[in-house]
Amino acid sequence: MKRFVWIDYAKSIGIYFVVLGHTHLYTPLSNVIYTWLMPVFFFISGYLFSFEKNTSLKTFAWKRFKSLLVPYLWINLITYLFWLFVGRKFGEDSTSNICWYSPAIHTLLGNGRQMVHNIPTWFYICLYGLEMFYYIFFKHVKKIYIGLLILIVAGYLNYTFNPYLLPFSLNTALVGMIFYALGNELKNRKYTFKYNIFYIVLFLSLIIIVAHFNGRINMYKNYYANYILFLIGGFSGIYLIAAIATFLSDRYKERKWITYISKNTIIISGFHLLIFSFLKGFMVFVLHVPIAFLYEKIAINILFAAISLILCLPIAYIINRYFPFIVGKKKYR
Q1: Does 333 map to a domain?
Q2: Residues 217, 197, 17, 15: is their CA dihedral positive or negative?
Q3: Phi and psi for 289 in degrees, rounded to 5?
Q4: In a domain, 77, yes or no
Q5: Is 272 exposed, middle or buried (0-12, 13-18, 19+ CB in 10 A)?
């Protein structure tokens, strides 16, 4: 299978911003990040999908079950147990009155909003449902742009008129499929992103403007504020990150550490909040530094996020080496 080196750079950039976005970041900067972050990941997932390599829905469903839902269940089990016995007693949830079994139930329902022990894992189950629907409805679609238009309209109608969150983040899957379908179509057309300073400045400016007027986007809550602005911000972010990633891959080629981060984004996204808890505990109980020290400090949170991501890498090594079943893989002897 051909490896898209720019995808490795894009995923590595994206996962760092996932970690950074979950720190106590300066609010306007956080809004900028969430304007484009999840659309980029849906786009990348679509870019990596191929109908030619997945000719059977049954085979594809099983393959993605192992690579998405198995990690979803194991990572949530591990982080839920930590929350149950530690997090809700000593962490930031210690002052809440969340019922002990509520996060477990909402994990089975795929309701990210109520998965207080590990909200970021909503993406795994959302992506699984999205890919199954995409496979069924788009396998024989020839005019992809008509399908894209239908998705955009359907996502808007669901967002505007459906006040209920569907199980397994299916509301969000409908909107995420817009970016997924775009990624798959551009890959099929062999579209290449070019690093052009004019377009970089243009799309970065659009993202900042959208973030200013649209505020915080929460895809896991199916909340987009102004839907059209959200789409503009998402498409702008896709081009921006893809162009930067293409430039980096052309200049620096394949790097082992970039590839390693890219291959382990599921583990990083699943365990970085656990790392947060240990780092904050070290700050409070060993260094006697209050958590408020992190609030809205840009430089400190950039460093905090970098340290957290680096600390996730040994976890990735241990899981891949000794417990690969956690991420749906077999242990090789």
Answers
A1: no
A2: positive
A3: -105, 125
A4: yes
A5: buried
Range of the domain at 317: 5-327
Q: What is the pLDDT of residues 129-172, one digit of tens each?
A: 999 999 999 988 877 888 899 999 999 999 999 988 889 999 99
Q: What is the per-residue pLDDT across 178-198, written as a single tens digit (0 to 9) for each?
A: 999 999 999 999 998 988 999
How many domains in the chain?
Answer: 1
What is the C-alpha separation between 53 and 43, in angstroms, rounded?
Answer: 18
Residue 4 phi/psi, 5-degree rounding, is -90, 105
**CA pair distance 94, 197, nearest whole angstrom:** 48
Flag whether 230 is in a domain.
yes
CB 81 within 8 A of CB 112: no
Question: Which amino acid appears at position 17 of this protein?
Answer: F
Q: Is residue 332 part of a domain?
A: no
The model's pTM: 0.96
Gap between the Cα atoms of 325 and 69, Å rounded = 12
What distance in Å separates the CA atoms of residue 92 and residue 102, rounded to the nearest whole number? 17
